[in-house]
Amino acid sequence: MFASRAQHIKEVIQPALADGQIVLCDRFTDSSEAYQGGGRKLGSEPVLALHQILCGGLQPHLTILMDSDVAASVNRARRRNLTLKHGRTQSSDEGRFEQENRAFFGRVRNSYLAIAQREPERVAVVDARGTVEETHRQIMQVVRRKLKLPAKAG
Description:
By secondary structure, this protein is mainly alpha-helical. About 60% of the residues lie in helices and about 5% in strands. It is globular, with a radius of gyration of 17 Å. The relative contact order is 0.13.
């Protein structure tokens, strides 16, 4: 994962940032820290060391952590993966992770929350237990604050 991430940083992210563009990523080192460090019990230190060596320590200016209870998250992922199997390609990582037990996902969630607590200026926790519209509204508020944009009227 880190080799791919390092290549992506060099070939896509750094040039875009140099051009003054905003870069959005679906997952970054926090995901590796949560899944491998927490879920797989490797600890944060080796993951963060690899990140420093291979990614130059590059960090997002904002990370949005969509938090939900473990059971709801696992059920949503399994439903999504069933849909993907019946029409589109499924990521092998996604399929592999969905086989994990709830204890694994509990450790992942706790790791994400620990990262948010450690770096509150960068990681915004959004309650994702509501509707898609409610979650979207919260995310947009976080992004507007970070970009110093006026709040949306109405």
